[in-house]
């Protein structure tokens, strides 16, 4: 694919992350959430769609422990996982 | 025999031209050779004067010369204009090529119009499953143990995904690392957007410390609509850690430091 056209200096240009860099979790405060997420991934053959709840939990843990700037979950692409105020039942629904 | 010999030199001598000395000067050798030489010289000389006479006769010749001169001038002007045009084009080519690259997304340049609001509004393209494989490297002099915690993950465009790397400092002194990343295939790199990661900033690890490093990313939903990406099923994300010297900062692409 990328070798079909060779314009000489075709190279990858890295881009900065949108929200910057994660501070390091030196004290392992969110390690439990990370372990849950990794276990979910291993159980589901590394299918990300099935483990979105765990990833949301991990990011929320980071936000709680000042390891990540607080953002509304919609901005992180978890619009489908947010519980709408009136009913709690929609929490697990995924499109 | 002597008569022609007498005649030739006189004829040769009557024209005071450059050819004459040559004619007379020719070898003292055979008389036959000399007469032949003089004959050819004379023949040529006879030709020349006729043309000279006609040339000097004239308005016709002069106007032709003028015509040639103006024609030459026009041609030279055209050539000079073309040369200047080429130089100008080579200067204009730089921004034009940049525009073209941005419009067509050639060479992995960032597609214009990529903003963070897209994350909130994008919908996942469930049919297109992409495998993202992870690779971790360190520079030769970097002593961290750096590896991904999952070899691969299956994502769909439009859905945010989380992945982890682990880094351990096995030495007895703190080491500061700084990393950069690479996405293969290059063309797919423009659709690979990282919301947050651990690259381009100094990360300090204390002695014998081990940390988890997350990468939070998504693949742009437009990936599915790009015909050039139709055959792409695997994207590889590769991170490389380098040791950072004190106070050194990798230039962050797209950011300006103050």
TrEMBL record, chain A:
Keyword list, A-Z: Cytoplasm, Disulfide bond
Signal peptide start and end residues: none
Locations listed in the record: Cytoplasm
Any single biological process term in GO: mitochondrial respiratory chain complex IV assembly
InterPro entries given in the database record: CHCH (IPR010625), COX19 (IPR051383), Cys_alpha_HP_mot_SF (IPR009069)
Cellular component terms per the entry's GO annotation: mitochondrial intermembrane space
Pfam families in the record: CHCH (PF06747)
UniProt keyword Disulfide bond, yes or no: yes
Major place of residence: cytoplasm
Record domain CHCH: where: 30-63
PANTHER family per UniProt: CYTOCHROME C OXIDASE ASSEMBLY PROTEIN COX19
Family: Belongs to the COX19 family.
Name the record gives this protein: Cytochrome c oxidase assembly protein COX19
Species: Acanthochromis polyacanthus (spiny chromis)
UniProtKB/TrEMBL annotation, chain B:
Pfam families referenced in this protein's UniProt entry, alphabetically: CtaG_Cox11
Subcellular location: Mitochondrion inner membrane
Transmembrane segments: 75-94
SUPFAM superfamilies: Ctag/Cox11
InterPro entries registered for this protein in UniProt: CtaG/Cox11_dom_sf, Cyt_c_oxidase_assmbl_CtaG
Keyword Cell division: no
Coiled coil regions, renumbered to chain: none
Topology relative to the membrane: Single-pass membrane protein
Top-level taxon: Eukaryota
UniProtKB keywords: Membrane, Transmembrane, Transmembrane helix
GO cellular component terms, semicolon-separated: mitochondrial inner membrane
UniProt GO molecular function: copper ion binding
Subunit composition and interactions: Interacts with CNNM4/ACDP4. Interacts with RANBP2.
Function per UniProt: Exerts its effect at some terminal stage of cytochrome c oxidase synthesis, probably by being involved in the insertion of the copper B into subunit I.
NCBIfam families, per database record: PRK05089.1 (NF003465)
Annotated protein name in UniProt: Cytochrome c oxidase assembly protein COX11, mitochondrial
Species name: Acanthochromis polyacanthus
Source organism phylogeny: Eukaryota, Metazoa, Chordata, Craniata, Vertebrata
């Amino acid at each position: 694919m990328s070798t079909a056209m060779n314009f000489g200096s075709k190279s990858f240009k890295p881009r900065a992350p949108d929200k910057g860099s994660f501070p390091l979790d030196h004290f392992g405060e969110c390690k439990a959430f990370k372990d849950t997420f990794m276990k979910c991934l291993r159980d589901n053959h590394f299918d990300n769609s099935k483990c979105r709840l765990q990833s949301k939990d991990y990011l929320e843990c980071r936000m709680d422990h000042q390891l990540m700037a607080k953002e509304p979950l919609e901005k992180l692409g978890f619009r489908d996982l947010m519980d709408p105020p009136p009913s709690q039942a929609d929490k697990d629904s995924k499109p | 025999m002597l008569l022609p010999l007498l005649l030739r030199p006189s004829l040769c001598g009557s024209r005071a031209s450059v050819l004459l000395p040559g004619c007379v000067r020719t070898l003292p050798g055979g008389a036959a050779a000399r007469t032949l030489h003089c004959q050819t010289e004379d023949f040529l000389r006879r030709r020349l004067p006729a043309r000279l006479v006609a040339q000097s006769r004239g308005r016709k010749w002069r106007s032709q010369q003028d015509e040639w001169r103006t024609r030459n001038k026009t041609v030279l002007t055209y050539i000079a204009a073309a040369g200047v045009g080429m130089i100008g084009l080579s200067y204009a080519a730089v921004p034009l090529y940049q525009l073209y690259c941005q419009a067509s997304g050639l060479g992995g340049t960032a597609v214009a119009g990529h903003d963070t609001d897209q994350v909130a509004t994008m919908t996942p393209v469930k049919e297109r499953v992409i495998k993202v494989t992870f690779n971790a490297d360190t520079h030769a002099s970097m002593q961290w143990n750096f590896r991904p915690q999952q070899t691969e993950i299956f994502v769909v465009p439009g859905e945010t995904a989380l992945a982890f790397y682990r880094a351990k400092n096995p030495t007895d002194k703190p080491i500061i690392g700084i990393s950069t990343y690479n996405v293969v295939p290059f063309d797919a790199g423009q659709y690979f957007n990282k919301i947050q990661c651990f690259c381009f900033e100094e990360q300090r690890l204390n002695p014998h410390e081990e940390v988890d490093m997350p990468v939070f990313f998504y693949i742009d939903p437009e990936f599915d609509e790009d015909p050039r990406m139709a055959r792409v099923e695997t994207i590889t994300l590769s991170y490389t850690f380098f040791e950072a010297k004190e106070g050194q900062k990798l230039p962050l692409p797209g950011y300006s430091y103050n």
